[in-house]
Specification:
Blueprint lengths: L1 H4 L7 E5 L9 H15 L7 E4 L16 H11 L3 E5 L6 H11 L3 E4 L16 H15 L3 E3 L8 H20 L3 E5 L13 H8 L2 E5 L1 H14 L2 H13 E2 L5 H20 L4 E4 L5 H4 L4 H9 L4 E2 L4 H14 L12 E2 L7 E2 L17 E2 L5
Parallel strand pairs: 1-2, 1-3, 3-4, 4-5, 6-7, 6-9, 8-13, 9-10
Antiparallel strand pairs: 11-12
Helix pairs in contact: 3-4, 4-5, 6-13, 8-10, 9-10, 10-12
Length: 370
């Protein structure tokens, strides 16, 4: 059970990379271009991105023969790629590139380097941009949805930034389709503003809301406290070490730890990665406010919105996806304008924020509020 409570959310993307060249243009030059861009993309988010190449199918891992399209497509399908990247080493082959993209029907990224000055009036080397225009026109006719990076060299910041932004979008798409949201309880009675159409979310995006009884969370928390297991003891001690809990009785701190573990257990058992919590009305049932629980689970990668805000939960899932693990997400109330600064806003109502957002020079405080 400890491995369940200690689990952290982690994204994973599989990207198929199919470089292309024009059949009669220089293979040596194409390989030179390939080595440059592959060196860059292999270093981008390598902890969460698996790159699938075609080195075992195409000559030097560069596609130009139409006869190899089916084999490349099959390899990518078996690998379960989430997206396709088709870098142009030169003019490329529009037939092979567009056909591959159409068969796979996944988000597609197109890029080619910015060519040097033409050598002569008769011979212009690679003509990369022209080939990209031709290929993407065919993609549009096939109904392929693609994005692109402006022609630039691989050492230009635009290349890595464009590739990284594509990964963010792909991860957002992957996250939304099939997303399961743990719906803890129901919305507080006075808050009509957080209502959402669960049927539309399912029909349009494949998002499922999964009911979670607050009573089940309470019972799990009771069992965790009664068992007083190793992870529970260590986690409680960790909270008290990280935060100033002097304003709370120790049994309340222990209860916060138990509720946090119980909520996470319910999410994992129901295959949910985000949630929406009834929040402050549950305080009387749980015995403590759930603000710290929401912040702690967000730091673990399982964000939960306040007041059963389903649309807020979807938003947090999207933010987590596009961040690619670069930080914890949070959902804040736009509470009041600064009395003097027109460009400042108070983003605080209750305290459901991740511990990781804390200023390094400040002590986090946990205190009873409700």
């Amino acid at each position: 059970m400890n491995e369940v409570f200690g689990r952290k959310y982690k994204d994973h993307l599989v990207i198929g990379v199919a470089p292309t060249k024009r059949g009669f243009l220089s293979m040596e030059e194409a390989v030179r271009q390939k080595e440059k861009f592959m060196a860059v993309i292999r270093g981008v988010k390598s902890d969460i991105v698996t790159i699938v190449d075609i080195d075992d199918i195409c000559e030097n891992g560069i596609m130009y023969r139409y006869e190899e399209v089916a084999q490349v497509a099959e390899k990518f399908r078996l690998a379960g790629i989430d997206a396709l990247f088709t870098p142009f080493c030169d003019f490329g082959e529009e037939q092979t590139v567009a056909t591959l993209a159409a068969r796979l029907n996944v988000p597609t990224l197109v890029w080619g380097p910015r060519d040097e000055r033409p050598n002569t009036d008769e011979s212009r080397g690679r003509d990369t941009q022209c080939g990209m225009f031709a290929a993407t026109k065919v993609m549009r006719r096939y109904g392929v949805r693609y994005s692109y990076i402006f022609n630039c060299e691989t050492d230009h910041p635009m290349f890595e930034q464009g590739y990284t932004n594509f990964l963010r979008v792909v991860n957002a798409l992957k996250t939304v389709h099939g997303l399961r949201i743990a719906k803890f309880g129901s919305r507080p009675l006075p808050f009509i503003s957080v209502t959402g159409n669960e049927g539309d979310l399912m029909t349009k995006f494949g998002i499922t809301t999964v009911p979670v009884s607050l009573t089940d969370v309470k019972q799990d928390a009771d069992a965790i406290e009664a068992e007083n297991g190793e992870f529970y003891q260590a986690y409680t001690a960790d909270i008290m070490k990280r935060m100033d809990c002097s304003a709370m009785a120790e049994d309340k701190v222990r209860r916060v730890a138990a509720i946090t573990m119980a909520a996470k257990k319910q999410m994992l058992e129901k295959d949910c990665t985000v949630g929406a919590m009834e929040c402050w009305p549950a305080t009387s049932l749980f015995g403590v406010a759930v603000c710290t629980t929401l912040g702690e689970l967000s730091d673990d990668g399982f964000p939960i919105s306040c007041e059963n805000d389903i649309n807020g939960a979807v938003t947090m899932a999207l933010l987590r996806a596009i961040s690619l693990g670069e930080g914890s997400v949070f959902l804040a109330d736009l509470t009041i304008r600064d009395p003097e600064n027109d460009n400042a806003e108070l983003l605080w109502h209750c305290g459901p924020f991740p511990y990781s957002l804390k200023d390094a020079g400040c002590q986090a405080l946990m205190a009873e509020r409700l």
